[in-house]
Amino acid sequence: MGTRRASGDSASQGRGKDGDRRVGRRALLIGTAVAAVGTAVVARGELQRAWWRVPGVEKPRKDGEVDYTGARWVAASDANWRMADRPDDYGVDMVIIHVTQGSFDSAVQVFQDPEHGAAAHYIVRKDGHVTQMIRELDVAYHAGNRDYNERSVGIEHEGFVDRPEDFTDEMYEASARLTARICVRYEIPLDREHIIGHVEVPGTDHTDPGEGWDWDRYMKLVRAAAAAGTSATT
Questions:
Q1: Given a cut of 70, is residue 14 above it in pLDDT?
Q2: Helices (H) and strands (E) in the chain, counts
């Protein structure tokens, strides 16, 4: 979250405002293309990805389902994210690192508050515990930049930007494993152009994760976790 409350999507916060529950411009373009080209096979694939955008229809979800093994599910307010079908509708090519500027419990509380207007996909506690609050296939309002929200997974870390002692060994290691798993899943390069801090998002006024975040250490841990995970599955 950084030194100020996260602002979410700059263009719009609520679902109704940015069209997740309406047939949006993209769906209309799909229909126009189908009518013009008359290619039923192409249309079928596009419509399968867009069918749940029709009013009253939602993509099937399982309560409590997590994307990262070992994470605990605690749902964020649905005012702080919008439904999507990533990576089919928005390609995921980035992980954004945040710091909560508060305790783990306070971060969970504000992400459950519909008035907050922001939430990240995950929170990592000082002891390494991982909580997931938004599914990776959905767009979380965490970056303060709509384009970056749509293409990224956001990870919050318990603590304060000016207290590097908050970033424990357990936190670094757990977060690195989580980031590595996300990067492997979406084939995201393991570099600082694709694993960034909130401060590096264009247009943001946040400073997290701050100068106390050890990027060299973190990236080594991420690469090691990715290599270990890849070896284990081959």
A1: no
A2: 7, 8
What's the CA gap between 103 and 105, in Å, rounded?
A: 5
pTM for the predicted model, two decimal places: 0.79
H-run or E-run covering 171: helix 169-186
Q: How far apart are CA 190 and CA 195, in angstroms?
A: 7
Quickly tell me which residue has 């006024």 as its tokens: 205
* 102 DSSP assignment: B
Neighbours of 198 (CB within 10 A): 29
Chain segment 17-55, per-residue pLDDT in tens? 322 222 333 333 334 444 444 445 445 555 555 555 555
Does an H or E element contain 197, and which?
A: strand 195-197
Pair 4, 206: CB distance under 8 Å: yes
Tell which phi-psi region holds residue 70, choosing left (phi > 0), alpha (psi between -120 and 50) or beta: left
